[in-house]
Amino acid sequence: MIILGIETSCDETGVAVYDTARPGAEGLRAQALYSQVALHAEYGGVVPELASRDHVRKLLPLVRQTLAEAGLAPSDLDGVAYTAGPGLVGALLVGAGAARALAWALDVPAIGVHHMEGHLLAPLLEAPDLEPPFVALLVSGGHSQLVMVEGIGRYRLLGETLDDAAGEAFDKTAKLMGLPYPGGPQLAALAEHGTPGRFKFSRPMTDRPGLDFSFSGLKTQVLLAWRDSDQSDQTKADIARGFEDAVVDTLAIKCERALDATGCDTLVVAGGVGANKRLRAKLQAMAEKRGGRVAFPRPALCTDNGAMIAFAGALRLEAGQHDDASVRVAPRWDMASLPAVA
Ligand code: ATP
Ligand code: MG
Ligand code: FE
């Protein structure tokens, strides 16, 4: 099946074509991404109404561009997959409306994809030999979760953040040290030049049992350290390094705990924070030490993209699943409520 994927849940317009007849990453015939980062930067965060309007402007040109790059006509499509939630309601409606209209005009099935399932399955796009059961660490701008993946569509939440998501903590911490939006990747880049160990922050909630996270206290620790410092460039980098090490250590400790608790030896990492180099290295080292396996998507497939939606939708459409013709989105949506893919 040749599936068009559309992602518009937040501030990225993502479009891709995935062909299930080709193995793994070769199935990705073309993809395009338009980031609204510059649009929202002056407000220091995503402005929902501006996001919706920009999706309206960019989506159809991106669909045309992606089909042209794949050398396909709209009539070659066998199905359409779009992000139906969770996310910003107006932004989701743009993608869902366009996807539904296309599917109706082409008389092909369409399916609303759960954005976090898209993130979660992205590593499988590049590693087709990867099969459940495995533990997934989902770390993005809005989520930090450990999920037991029993099968495609069979997800059991093991633990999640009680306050800020890991990506949100990166962004907020960057902001309080004056880095421009979106600060997460910039904070990580700064940490590369930081002195390890000069600033030591806590590893929240690792001193007690359980698989939940809490990152908001870490942000406060950084605020106090930054306020009481000389605020030089080197200090900023050193604090960034201390913060990154604290987040990475905390995530690694909880991942190892989740693997122990479930008896799994495979860990799959997805979501924007999965692009973090130090997190990748740390989890790789942990997996090697345990004799297990860790899988990450390439960094461009960690953050929001259309490919993960095309891929997740393709798995469901191939299994015969699809939704009726109404345009429905779910700004809040529990991944555990998804149907299994047989
Ligand atoms: P959600 O998927 O929960 O709805 P989102 O779609 O906004 O949220 P993603 O696009 O998956 O999130 O990821 C964006 C987040 O990843 C941002 O918070 C960003 O700071 C963070 N991020 C991206 N690259 C890095 C990096 N190298 N190191 C740390 N954080 C990063
Ligand atoms: Mg984004
Ligand atoms: Fe996302």
From TrEMBL:
Q: What is its EC number?
A: 2.3.1.234
Q: Where is each Gcp-like domain found?
A: 29-311
Which coenzymes or cofactors are required? Fe(2+)
UniProt binding sites for substrate:
138-142, 171, 184, 276
Biological process terms from the Gene Ontology for this record are:
tRNA threonylcarbamoyladenosine modification
- What is its EC class? transferase
Tell me where on the tree of life, at the top rank, the source sits. Answer: Bacteria
One GO CC term of this entry?
cytoplasm
Positions bound to Fe cation: 115, 119, 304
Q: Where in the cell is it found?
A: Cytoplasm
Reaction(s) the record says it catalyses: L-threonylcarbamoyladenylate + adenosine(37) in tRNA = N(6)-L-threonylcarbamoyladenosine(37) in tRNA + AMP + H(+)
Q: Which family does it belong to?
A: Belongs to the KAE1 / TsaD family.
Its job: Required for the formation of a threonylcarbamoyl group on adenosine at position 37 (t(6)A37) in tRNAs that read codons beginning with adenine. Is involved in the transfer of the threonylcarbamoyl moiety of threonylcarbamoyl-AMP (TC-AMP) to the N6 group of A37, together with TsaE and TsaB. TsaD likely plays a direct catalytic role in this reaction.
| Official protein name in the record | tRNA N6-adenosine threonylcarbamoyltransferase
Q: Which organism is it from?
A: Pseudoluteimonas lycopersici
Q: What is the lineage of its organism?
A: Bacteria, Pseudomonadati, Pseudomonadota, Gammaproteobacteria, Lysobacterales
The coding gene here is tsaD
